[in-house]
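Format notes (please read before filing issues)

Several people have asked whether sequences and structure tokens are stored in separate files. They are not. Every record keeps both together, in the order shown below: the sequence lines, then the token lines. Line labels are part of the format and must not be stripped during preprocessing.
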Amino acid sequence: MAPDRKRVDLGSNDVLIVVDVQKCFLPGGPLAVSEGDRVIGPLNRAIEKFQRRQLPIFFSRDWHAPDHISFRQRGGPWPPHCVRASEGAAFPPELNVPENAMIVSKGTRRDEEEYSALAGRDGNRRLEEILSGAGVERVFVGGVATDYCVLNTVLDAAGAGYEVFLLTDAIKPVEAAPGDNERALQKMREAGARMIETEDIG
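Then the structure lines:
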């Protein structure tokens, strides 16, 4: 699905959400997204543009208990991944995580799955509450995986009334079933998301 390719100038009510770029989801990890590491370069470009304008940047991460409900040993669909405080749950060193960025953790309760970054928490506050209290109007989203956590983040943000921009050069799918990626892109476009590339950000 081709991006809209129209320049978008950043404004004071914009935020960037980097979704789940963790070692477990990158090549060599237990739940690796094919070519998932290729999102890092485009994301770093977007991060630099938001930093330059001193705009908020949020990083979501899976932060699971060792016996999380999504793991196969508990009947879930996935191999164990992103166990809290493990090496696999860490961000890769190549990813630029600014010191003042906010990190929100999701899937922290052993019996609760959370795909959307907006469900992630900084302490007791959900990201959705942080955004609603900060006067945010536009949300820019990139990360992994297109057909799960990125999809749910975009749908939740659009459903909450934000204008959403999907960074199409900064996402990769897991594609557990053939066609999942295209279906996810279609759902996001139908929800109103605009599809751009990081170089379109002004």
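For reference, the curators noted about this record: Helices lie at 40-52, 127-132, 146-159, 180-190. Strands lie at 14-19, 57-62, 102-106, 121-122, 125-126, 138-144, 163-172, 194-196.
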